[in-house]
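Try this one yourself first.
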């Protein structure tokens, strides 16, 4: 893969970040949780088993999406919109159905990462960067 678009780079970066967050979220000594009990990862972000699994799935999808420009664009659009929706939902219902905590610091994180991904998916021009 000699050249990668900025769209593919965005999918790679966010995929790696969300995969790392998901894996770290399973480590109780970091404040993570491997049960459905909410705990504060690094004392900041509320996570539980389902939250961590969702982060891992987003991460793996982002890494897989780097395989093509079309996949990267789809990943950025879909995950961007979902994260924006989760951020908005978190402002009104921080723990919908008692499954996934979306309040406090998670709101800002989801809104910012969702906005960045949506920008790359819907607005950003495609440019290629050489990998050397």
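Now uncover the answer:
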């Amino acid at each position: 893969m000699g050249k990668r678009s900025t769209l593919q780079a965005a999918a790679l970066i966010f995929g790696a970040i969300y995969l790392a967050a998901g894996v770290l979220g399973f480590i109780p000594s970091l404040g993570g949780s491997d049960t459905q009990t909410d705990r504060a990862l690094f004392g900041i972000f509320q996570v539980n088993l389902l939250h961590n699994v969702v982060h891992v799935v987003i991460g793996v999808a982002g890494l897989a999406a780097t395989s093509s420009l079309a996949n990267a664009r789809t990943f950025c659009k879909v995950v961007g919109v979902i994260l924006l929706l989760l951020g908005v939902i978190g402002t009104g219902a921080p723990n919908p159905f008692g499954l996934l905590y979306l309040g406090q610091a998670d709101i800002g994180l989801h809104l910012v990462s969702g906005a960045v991904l949506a920008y790359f998916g819907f607005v950003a021009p495609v440019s290629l960067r050489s990998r050397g």
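Discussion: Residues 3-121 form one domain. The chain has one domain: 3-121.
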